[in-house]
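hey can u check if this looks right to u? its 376 residues, i copy pasted from the old doc so theres a chance i mangled smth
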Amino acid sequence: MKFLHLSDLHIGKMLNAVSMINEQINFFAQVIDYIRSEKPYAVVIAGDIYDRSVPSTEAVLAFDDFLTALVESGAVIIIISGNHDSPARLNFASRLLSHRQLFLYGAFNGSLQKLTFNDETGTVNFWLLPFINPASVRSFHQGANIQDYNAALDFVLKNADIDYSMRNIFVSHQYYTKAGLSLERSESELNPIGGLDAIDISLIKNFDYAALGHLHGRQKAGEEHICYAGSPLKYSFSEAHHKKSVNLVEIREKGNLTVTALPIKPIHNMQIIKGKLSTLLDRPEPCEDYIYAILTDEEEIIDPMEKLRNIYPNIMKLDFDNSRTALDLTEAYQGGEAESLSAYDLFSEFFLLNQGSVMSNEQIGIVQTLFGGANE
């Protein structure tokens, strides 16, 4: 069985006051082309469909056109919500649409959702989990000891009837990591303080493939079969070096898996350029890329943005790096955000920072006991 894995569409995204909608529509067309050429059985979208929980009319119409083209392609469509999405809005008409092989799991209902399909080798199970947090899981399981994201996922998985001897695909939109693993994060992601949203990948290692969303750089989360597809477009200049793509996944008999990156070509690329103004303007023809320019000139320049715009019409950002701006930008930690956290959350952050992993259930129990005694 072949399927496309993509995520983090962020439809309606504005980057430096520039709408990305035309770039996104161009990406949608490339996905449809890949469906025609590769003929996947399914298309899996692992969350963050929209950039905002209340998307613009323009964004909704663009997604509607994309969904229509996906359904008309004949592929099974599987979509979960991400932390940017409104679960209720994304869940609208999900039961009705499932009859058209369009499966939306926007609002978490207390458990994993299972979809079962068959190919020439047998059964493939897709296990769907939209973005969750500890509170959302506790709301369905009163009395459960769920203090952090790791415990939340552990609880959900243990309460699912998963036969790991079969072929299982996990679809999730969370931050997965492990001790010693350094995953690349981008400025365009929402990052909680100190990685409090971290979940250990050991919880999902028994799936045959984990189709993840949330991180915007395409990367493996410690294992070959645990993959972030990444965003299909560059949504911050921290992603200027990324090579954007979607994953073509093929699972044959159990243990036989291949993952291929299918490149996405944007209308406009993204670049960070640095140097003196005269050097940056010394081009034979204009550059249409989205540009972040850093000027190193020591002398004052009158209206540098307008001068640069003559050569770089899509310039988005301008900074200076010279002796006048070479200040120590390192700020002392003020502790403003820390004051709003509980003692348990602060210790969880400290543990992750020093150990590179989240606490086990046993360690959580010890810490809760210690802090309970300290409070008394």
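DSSP finds ten helices and 19 strands in the chain.
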